[in-house]
Amino acid sequence: MQQLLALVPALPLLAAVLLMLAATRIGTNGVRILGVGSVALSALLACRIAVAQIGAGWAVQPFDVTLWHWMRIGDFAPDVTLHLDGLSLVMMLVITVIGFLIHLYASAYLDGDPGYARFFACMNLFVAAMLTLVLANDLLLLYVGWEGVGLCSYLLIGFWYDDPANGRAARKAFIVTRVGDTALISGLFLLATSFGTLSIPSLMQHATTSWPIGTAMPTLAAFLLLGGALGKSAQLPLQTWLVDAMAGPTPVSALIHAATMVTAGVYLIARTHVLFALAPDALLVTGLIGAATLLLSGASALVQTDIKRVLAYSTISQIGYMFLALGVGAWDAAIFHLVTHAFFKALLFLAAGAVILRMHHEQDITRMGGLRTAMPGVFVVFAIGSASLAALPLVTAGFYSKEAILGGAWDSGPSGRLLWCAGVVGAFLTALYIFRLLFIVFLGEQHRHPHGVTGWRIGVPLGVLAILAVVGGGLQTPALLGGIAIMPGILGGVFGSASHEGALALLPLVLASLVPLAGIALAWRWYGGGLASRFETQFTGLLLRGWDFDRAYDRMIVQPLMWLVRVNHHDIVDSFYEGLGKLAQRTHAGLSLSENGRVRWYAGWLAAGSVAALAIAVLS
Amino acid sequence: MGAVAPANAILLAAILFGLGLAGVLIRRNLIFMLMSIEVMLNATGLAFVAGGARWGQADGQVMFLLVLTLAAAEISVGLALILLLQTRRPTLDSDVGNRLKG
Lengths: 620, 102
Prior knowledge:
The complex is a heterodimer.
Chain A: H1 7-22, H2 27-53, E1 63-69, E2 79-84, H3 86-109, H4 116-135, H5 139-157, H6 164-195, H7 200-210, H8 216-232, H9 240-244, H10 250-259, H11 264-271, H12 273-277, H13 280-301, H14 307-327, H15 331-358, H16 376-389, H17 397-410, H18 413-442, H19 456-471, H20 486-495, H21 506-527, H22 538-544, H23 549-567, H24 574-594, H25 599-619
Antiparallel strand pairs in A: 1-2
Chain B: H1 6-26, H2 30-55, H3 59-88
Keywords (chain B): Cell membrane, Membrane, NAD, Oxidoreductase, Quinone, Translocase, Transmembrane, Transmembrane helix, Transport, Ubiquinone
GO biological process, one term (chain B): ATP synthesis coupled electron transport
EC number (chain B): 7.1.1.-
């Protein structure tokens, strides 16, 4: 069973290669079977491995599978080794199961698209790369997966490349994440030169033994890794690419830009949490960035009119929660929220996609409204997803994971209390913006009629995800509410036993669960009757443009660079050599002017030369 | 025949040389240019003779004989060339034949 672990990423990779090579020969049905089937098999295999490895008390038996020796350069000898423990098991299950549901959905969503096979090739390649990322035992192999998902993200954002705007969005995503990736690879170089290995377990062991807490080296390494995580997970100040990434097809937004790839940064920090624990400064910054991001993008989500942009800002905001949890050392709460977020955000994206599909690819919510009667099923699952995102108390998965984060923040000292306040305000904003979206789209007056019906390949993933978005909370509940501890059990082997177990006070729990209700009530008051009472101020424009980060970056980085490019258009260094050439040409022109073929001129020059020579001889 | 001062003879040679040079530079007719060259050659001959007379040596007159021979050879080659050019292009204008332009 353990040897089969390699098949989990290998199957989607094989399918991706086959789809790339044989796309035109196997027909649409073949593409569908190969593209969806490979991920389905991978998901089944992952579940089977999970069943085999989870023992008493939900503890996971960790194991390694060494596939081959990668290279040997002196003492540096990375292996291609897959490592399965609680953390990678959770990630693997999320990627394969949600990946399968989204693939199934996409097989209907993209029906009739000329790039059908290309789409599934990229999606399968993405799943393979993401699984490599989470299963890697070595930071070098992790980096291969890290860049692989970045590449697939680029390819899929620009999937409809006919529109130049989509290509621009794809390039923006690629370039902005590259800023973070540069920090990450620098961090890897630092770790590799310090310890001569990039294998994660031995790295963590070396770090704890030879680096004291709070010294410069672990802090620097942690900040560099954090830089990579910020880029990939679209956190402040590298968050600008994710909103434009919505140019891709909706299943791509659901899988890559909500459920899996953007959470890779959270996974990276959780995976190297030993190193971060040695750098309290880096942890504090992580938490502060998370808090700032969740507030800023939560506020931006309040005024967006594009259904997918609301969800994109919401994703940035929710990943901010995960970073907040990482910042206070609540590793398992971060991973728990990652899982529940994958459930309900994938659900919201897919439901939004169902709406978009039936509204003739209309994404502007001001032109929707009253869809409740025409699409009751989608309305119900969207409402479930919204409730889960808004953390509706007791009945939704989002409530339990958000409580775990807020509880962790509450328990971690004065700075934690500050972060807790930010989290609570963020929870209010979350409830407000997502129910604003729900009310505007599904309630009120109907402007346009949707066409067609929602097929089973779209309906089934929605239904399954809706169930997961509700029961997912049962993975971990506070001591006050039953104290179920599946998630801490699974992750216990990685993070050690949870420290804040049972310490959660009643007051913050009650307070934090009332806030979403207040947000929903306000949303009902403002938007319950549709879009009629929408508030418009000067402030709205700033929020709409995402706090003008794009404009600031344009002024500070893009325009100076473009100015330099314009100035240096004719390569300044090269102009010297060009000058040499010009000089030779001028001299040539001048000399050939004297060679005019007229004997009298030659005689004249001869005479003048003789006179000059004589004059010099006589006068000197 | 009284003795001529060498300085005067040299001056005359210089004037003749200048006239010849001016003729070469100004006239466009090849025949006239050839004649002007003859004038210049004779000016140098005169300068040699004057020099020989000044120092009382025969070298100047030897040189003049050499110049005379040279002038005869030069004029024969020059006239032959002009005749050849004349058969190719019916003109004596030197500026028309600037085919060797760089």
